[in-house]
Amino acid sequence: MEVVVYPDPRLLKRTAPLAQVDDDVRAKAAEMLRLMYSDHGVGLAAPQVGWSARIFVMNPTGDAGQKGEERVLVNPVLKRRAGKVRGEEGCLSFPGIYVEVDRARQVAIEWTDLAGAKHEEEWTDWMARIFQHELDHLDNVLLIHRMSDTDRMQHAEALDDLRRKFAEA
After folding, report:
1. Which domains does the chain have, with CATH numbers?
2. Helices (H), 3-124
3. Residue 3, H or E segment
């Protein structure tokens, strides 16, 4: 398993809900966490590793030593959003590119964990931003789709480099 980079078409493949959480799903989630930490991320969605499933991992600290902060969200659902805040985002599938993105400040969410337990919570600020970014991946919305025209011009060379490297691979 490896992090796939734009413009890999697997980033835009429709994701399917997971029918069950089994040892295979748990093993993939553990590998996703390992990859997220190795790339210094705070979240990683299944499409970013070429897996078309509705699951993502996150740790708002980005610190592998803070296991208590890890979340694995299976079949996450955004129930409600409130407020608006603008903040910088990067993406492991767009290495080195950072843009300002508008997000809801607060979200009400549901998901299932790796033990099969259902959760409902409200998250704000950083946690809400990570959730929305990773949920975007599950809905085939990428960082490039959140870029303004100015962002696209500013990052044109970097995006062209990513396209060229993908074509050469």
Report:
1. 9-168 (3.90.45.10)
2. 23-38
3. none
Based on the residue annotation, tell me whether 2 is a catalytic residue of this protein: no
Q: What is the pLDDT of residues 10-56, one digit of tens each?
A: 999 989 999 999 999 999 999 999 999 999 999 999 999 999 999 99
Note the pTM of the prediction, 2 decimals: 0.94
Buried b (16+ CB within 10 A) or exposed e, 7-18: bbeebeeebeee
In a 10 Å sphere around its CB, with 0-12 CB exposed, 13-18 middle and 19+ buried, how is residue 65 labelled?
exposed
How far, in Å, CA of 91 to CA of 87, rounded? 13
Among 123, 104, 9, 7, smallest CA distance to 58 is for 123
Looking at 69, 134, 157, 168, which residue is catalytic? 134
